[in-house]
Amino acid sequence: MAIAAAAVVVPLGVLFLFSGIVVNIIQAVCFILVRPLSKNMYRRINRVVAELLWLELVWLIDWWAGVKVQLYTDSETFQSMGKEHALLISNHRSDIDWLVGWVLAQRSGCLGSTLAVMKKSSKFLPVIGWSMWFSEYVFLERSWAKDESTLKAGLGRLKDFPRPFWLALFVEGTRYTRAKLLAAQEYATSTGLPVPRNVLIPRTKGFVSAVSNMRSFVPAIYDVTVAIPKNQPSPTMLRIFKGQPSVVHVHIKRHLMKELPDTDDGVAQWCRSAFVVKDALLDKHLVEGTFGDQEFQDTGRPKKSLLVVISWSCLLVFVAFKFCKWSSLLSSWKGIAFSAAGLSLVTILMHIFILFSQSERSTPAKIAPARPKSGGESSVTSRDKQQ
After folding, report:
1. Does residue 322 lie within any of the structural domains?
2. Total domains present in the chain
3. What's the rounded Cα separation, in Å, for the pair 135 and 121?
4. Cα(111)–Cα(109) distance, rounded to whole angstroms?
5. 382 pLDDT band (50/70/90 cuts)?
């Protein structure tokens, strides 16, 4: 990590680590003392507590970097957002797609109950991974033999969730790159599938499982398309930490869960067809620079994340002052060395967080791609290796 970047990342990292540890402690105490008595009460408390941590990341986009997330959807969908359970499927264009989702969830009032399917290793990441575990994110190992039952159990637990939630699923299974697109195009050509230009071919087995297990209590699927205008730089976590702005366009199409086909094969084909439409939509966006078929919805820039960060900062300064005064930490070489070691640890943890943001989000679709019923079924294994 460059020195200039570290000069920005470290103070933010100290704040995030401090607030995260406080949040994790509260979550752990509630998990031990409250959850055995009332799971609903635990979830309601955790929703508020987790949001105090996630709002810091929303603040990074909204107030620090000034990244503009512009939403295009119809009025009915816009009014429904945050008021119903929803399964989100999205293309995976950049390493901050998940943060873009959090921004929209915060605007919709359901940030604390926004969930995702993640790699199992993610839950061991200090602060953010631990908070995700307490918040009932679903963690998988990328082995369908092991994960099929885990996914079913994780989704089943959401049946009695007391507040509207969003569950995010990146059905492409990996982040879009040019090399992965070429591999997807080669696979599509060999199997007779539509050749993609802007997306990867969705791996539908996880999506089919999610629909099968959530159909009875989740009324809608939000088909999300993320695009970066061609005259804007692609946002990354490092650019955001540096305070560099960008623009992200998000298109949402709401589908009623009850309108999906009844069979697993039908649901898989529905998902593949949705990504063919998404591909064409991105072609149009590339030419026009907008999603002209849907209304632009002004989501504003709520001050809540700014107030939360200011509050955490004041608390951190107060605690640090009292601790230094009590311990005389900076009055000896040993204390100075201890402080330097602590800042180095924060730098390392924030570097890991940036790498985590850039890594592939695991989805059940990634683990077990559904085999389309076309002549090239034998090529699935080859595609798995390529992507």
Report:
1. no
2. 1
3. 16
4. 6
5. very low
Residue 187 lies in a domain: yes
Assess contact for 216 and 295: CB atoms under 8 A.
no
Q: What is the mean pLDDT of the chain?
A: 84
H helices, E strands: number in the chain: 14, 8
pLDDT > 70 in the chain, percent: 81
CB 164 within 8 A of CB 44: no
Q: What is the mean pLDDT of residues 326-353?
A: 60
For 7-64, the pLDDT digits (tens) are 566 778 888 888 999 999 999 999 999 999 999 999 999 999 999 999 999 999 999 9
The pLDDT score that the predictor gives to residue 161 is 94
Radius of gyration of the chain (CA): 22
In terms of Cβ atoms closer than 10 Å to its own Cβ (0-12, 13-18, 19+), residue 368 is buried
Residue 314 lies in a domain: no
Q: Which domain holds residue 47?
A: 3-305+349-386
How crowded is the C-beta side of 307, counted as CA atoms within 13 Å?
A: 5
Structure tokens at 144: 């369908």
Categorise residue 372: left if φ over 0, alpha if ψ from -120 to 50, beta otherwise.
Answer: beta
> Token pair 């079913």 is at which residue?
152
Of residues 222, 282, 218, the one with CA closest to residue 89 = 222
Whether 331 is in a domain gets the answer: no
Q: 331 versus 13: which is more confidently predicted?
A: 13
Say which DSSP state 193 is in.
Answer: P
Q: Taken in order 81, 87, 93, 98, is the CA torsion positive or negative?
A: positive
pTM for this model (two decimals) = 0.84
**How high is the pLDDT of residue 251?**
96
User: Residue 268 has which token pair?
Assistant: 């898989």
